[in-house]
Amino acid sequence: MPANAYRAYYEHQPLRRSSIPRGEHMRLHRRLQYGDLSQFDVLDGRQYRSVPPCGWGEAPACAAAYDPSVTMLGDAQERWLLDGLAASDVRWNVLVNNVMMGRLDHDGPSGDILWHDAWDGFPAARTRLTDHFVNAGVRNPVVIIGDWHSTSSTTSSGTSTGPTRRWWPPSS
């Protein structure tokens, strides 16, 4: 069944030949480099990830999500990303991602209800990535997403539990 779904997806999306499904596998992540200015790592955050340990959608945070074996990208894609970022010598390292990476509390100041379909459901994986930004000296990491039908801009504290500052839209 998944092989048919991947085939239908490929046939109805503007994808490159490199994404032709091979059985139940379809490579969607890739890297683009523009000289020494920028590197774009286009990520696939759906196909290889773990089942969110705290449940799907909106749910309370749970300790199981901090298990180091829980992954948002799958082991092979995560290694590909971390190795590529470590080797990068460009000015801007841009991660093109399908879901929000910054922490987003759904219940205000208490911060117990999170959206587990995004990186909030995978805090150990997010911490590995943000720690790698620092430890590998990744220059100017930027994460852009295409998940919600809205616009926002945030800065990250660099930790999975620290505050995320929202720049846009302005809070009322």
| Major beta-sheet overview | 4 strands, mixed
**Radius of gyration using CA atoms only:** 17 Å
Strands in their spatial order, largest beta sheet: 1-2-4-6
Mean pLDDT: 84
Keyword list:
172 residues, alpha/beta, four-stranded mixed β-sheet, two-stranded antiparallel sheet, 3 helices, 8 strands, disordered C terminus
Q: How is this structure best described in words?
A:
The chain is of the alpha/beta class and 172 residues long. The protein is built from 3 helices and 8 strands, in the order H-E-E-E-H-E-E-H-E-E-E. It has a 4-stranded mixed beta sheet, with helices on one face. The longest helix has 13 residues. The chain starts with a helix and ends with a strand. The C terminus is likely disordered.
Short description, anyone?
With 172 residues, the chain is an alpha/beta fold. The protein has three helices and eight strands. The longest helix is centred in the middle third of the chain and has 13 residues, at 75-87.
Helix-strand layout with pairing:
Elements: H1 2-11, E1 30-34, E2 38-42, E3 58-60, H2 75-87, E4 92-97, E5 113-115, H3 123-135, E6 141-145, E7 153-156, E8 164-168
